[in-house]
């Protein structure tokens, strides 16, 4: 861990992009960074860059973060910039929104997004709608972040996915990073954005290391909100996912590749604004579509993707109805066998792909 | 400095300036100022409270009178426009409570901050917007202060954060604004208002806790007009001593019908916060003549006699007027002249608010995001698209 941190602070980052690319080709900078480290780095860099940025939430300071995402930040920035709050989601979310209205740039952490339900009025009615209601007078530059969706064995009240709930609301931006590069680029963009941005992280991804491309090592590395990424090119079917399921889709794609089925896997990265154009272009190429998400099926992210595909040019290119793979339509159970079957597994994705391709 | 700011604010609010010569003639016959006794405030966890006497200058008195009269007439005009169906939806009027908005403003600086709930037209005015912009927002026209996008409950100005429709939500927001004040180190305070009904919201207690813990320069202000919609305070609160509800936060109970009392209490409370001692709580005991909103006649849960009694004994404008006339700070005629000027200002503003066109349909999608390049917003079906610019 320390060695990795040392690597991240090397002066190599300061070198211009052009030079970096040359270095990348000659000496492969195969840097492994976990999603947790990436978010930490992103926040650290933005805290350093702009004095108005600060972090508040339960256990973010002296505990180093309930999931250690904010490790080291309190030690570096102190009480003024990293604030431990009492257990008062509605109160501290409102305080964060008020601070944003008054010109600061808060990062409001929800220990998990399940608890954001306590504060959801502040997110929607005080943050999301204000710029519009005020006729463009009052911006709200705030970030709400935290782990979203299923974890492992935490049962029904701690496993809900809020992508569809937040994605529903105009005035909000909602992003859902999958890997480390996503996590760093999106959190930085979110913090620099003058609008309320909900960053839906994933607890099970925090500890997962990914290769960190050299561009991502820059202090100005940003991923634009509203753009999806094609993680894997393919020709037979478009597979659209966000967050942890992207990894499952890539696994499924690897398995299917051996059978001669090439999947194009799209990492949505943003829930709102949604990059439907990238999905459409892909469907127009592959003629088949499945969506994969951890959340419940009804009124979910996949439902929205399907509806939009029907409304756009890609519909005429579909050779089969679009198909959704989602969490099971139940509150998350505890027992392992039940929990495992309540979220989309690789086999479920493969099955859906084959069904869609009529194989 | 304050006089200069007052002059500037008068200009900004479009009030007609009196010719200099008339002012000179007038002031020769009047006292420059007078000292008044004001009610002592009930205190909670405070050794001392605001002073029990205060000096009112002629100039300040005339300004307060004009402002209160403007708020009064503006609200009555809104009542009229609502009954003519030119104003729609929600319309919560504050006539009767003028001493609160004018008195609070008199006790703070324009660089301080203020946030309130939905009974906000008076505060929108005292925080610097014109009657024109306010009425045009109520009528939903492009000349409204929120371009017709917000309506009655969503008006904003510099250092005025609305206008908030969700009961109680504005209180944590206000504590957050106070946090920003402390963070920026500029000695500013935030007045955070809520009603007697909102006072029972849990998030307010969360805000009390954090404000006290972090010593935020937040003046919590309960504008107690005795009724939360149709529910009297006795039927809503186990403790109606709203100034004590902050528990560990010191509090004071203030006569909210007396503008001088409100001003002194506000000065006291703001000074307390500015000294870094943390938050303080003020309960303003006041009264609204109208019902909760325009859809409430306001007599099913209270008696007409009660309303009449307050009007005849405690009307804030009448109280100020009597004081000024009796201490030779102003003449009855002079104040009548102000009434006439105010009526004209309101009439002109109402004309504008009625004649100004509605916002252009093309702008329906505007102001979704701040500082973003233009994008498209979906309308009622997939073929209807609106452009959105920041």
Automatic annotation (TrEMBL), chain A:
Cofactor dependence: thiamine diphosphate
Single GO cellular component term: pyruvate dehydrogenase complex
Subcellular locations according to the entry: Mitochondrion
Gene Ontology MF terms in the entry: metal ion binding; pyruvate dehydrogenase (acetyl-transferring) activity
Gene3D superfamilies the UniProt entry points to: 3.40.50.920, 3.40.50.970
Protein EC: 1.2.4.1
Keywords: Carbohydrate metabolism, Glucose metabolism, Metal-binding, Mitochondrion, Oxidoreductase, Potassium, Pyruvate, Thiamine pyrophosphate, Transit peptide
Role according to the record: The pyruvate dehydrogenase complex catalyzes the overall conversion of pyruvate to acetyl-CoA and CO2. The pyruvate dehydrogenase complex catalyzes the overall conversion of pyruvate to acetyl-CoA and CO(2), and thereby links the glycolytic pathway to the tricarboxylic cycle.
NCBIfam families: PRK09212.1, PRK11892.1
Protein name: Pyruvate dehydrogenase E1 component subunit beta
Originating species: Odobenus rosmarus divergens
From TrEMBL, chain B:
Annotated catalysed reactions: N(6)-[(R)-lipoyl]-L-lysyl-[protein] + pyruvate + H(+) = N(6)-[(R)-S(8)-acetyldihydrolipoyl]-L-lysyl-[protein] + CO2
Matching SUPFAM superfamilies: Thiamin diphosphate-binding fold (THDP-binding)
Keyword annotations from UniProtKB, A to Z: Carbohydrate metabolism, Glucose metabolism, Magnesium, Metal-binding, Mitochondrion, Oxidoreductase, Phosphoprotein, Pyruvate, Thiamine pyrophosphate, Transit peptide, Tricarboxylic acid cycle
Encoding gene (name): PDHA1
Gene Ontology terms, MF aspect: metal ion binding; pyruvate dehydrogenase (acetyl-transferring) activity
Cofactor(s) this protein cannot do without: Mg(2+); thiamine diphosphate
NCBIfam families documented for this protein: PDH_E1_alph_y (TIGR03182)
Main function: The pyruvate dehydrogenase complex catalyzes the overall conversion of pyruvate to acetyl-CoA and CO(2), and thereby links the glycolytic pathway to the tricarboxylic cycle.
Cellular localisation: Mitochondrion matrix
Main location: mitochondrion
UniProt protein name: Pyruvate dehydrogenase E1 component subunit alpha
Any Gene Ontology biological process: pyruvate decarboxylation to acetyl-CoA
